[in-house]
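Record type: ASSEMBLY
Status: queued
Input:
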Amino acid sequence: LCAAVPLKDMKLLDVKLGQLPTWLAMRDFTPGGILGALRRGYDRYYNKYINVKKGGLGGISMVLAGYVVVSYIWSYSHL
Amino acid sequence: MNLSFFDQFASPYFLGIPLILLSMLFPTLLFPTPNNRWITNRLSTIQLWSLHSITKQLMAPLNKEGHKWALILTSLTMLLLTINLLGLLPYTFTPTTQLSMNMALAFPLWLATLLTGLRNQPSISLGHLLPEGTPTPLIPALIMIETTSLLIRPLALGVRLTANLTAGHLLIQLISTAITALLPIMPTVSILTTSILFLLTILEVAVAMIQAYVFVLLLSLYLQENI
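Status: finished
Output:
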């Protein structure tokens, strides 16, 4: 017997496939909303990989590897 | 084919959207704000340690008035250091290869040191234009020479950084092209591969570029602001 959570506030992994377009349409796409989403994503990454007692080289290497991949995608048309 | 060697310095665009601001702001992601704990995570510890040693090194020859410049000088150091090192990764864009950015950094800061000196101690600042003990007939010529060298400082600062980085990146690209072109002909490749490794370590001298940049800035700063 699960509590009735409104569709807008459900996490992405709990949303059923059929409800996906509705869920996407109800997300907050204002600049403040996008900023909030970026901040949440950054905090999640930071607290999981960097802000730990024995953080290793992997935390920042993933960021740099992602930066290289994104730069490759951006410069693909010039190659 | 030759012209494509300079494409790596073109300002990045993606589907018409300029990405230059993003590539200049990316280093901020790598420096998390330190929290108030006594023992922070390893990344913050290393960054704070290096920041402190750089600051101590930079502020050592300065008097108390010069310590006001600590924040801007150390943040400039970290910015240039990060940008230069990130540019060594494959496919990345280095904003400091653009003369516009380096001049925008060099010129206002140099002008600030000049104006501070002229405002607070004008006779001493102007006195720097004539070294001690020059023979009297030489004085007019020497003053003109010293003024020229003073006015050319911002240009030198900006162009030095641009030229060093651009030359390094171009060399890396040229040598890599040579290696891939010579790959069917095997023995030459191994020698060239070691030279590219050498070149990359010499490119770590881009790190020394930061030393050169802030040191020269600092040099002109305490030359004019000393008691």
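Annotation: DSSP finds three helices and no strands in chain A.
Annotation: Helices of chain A lie at 20-25, 31-50, 57-74.
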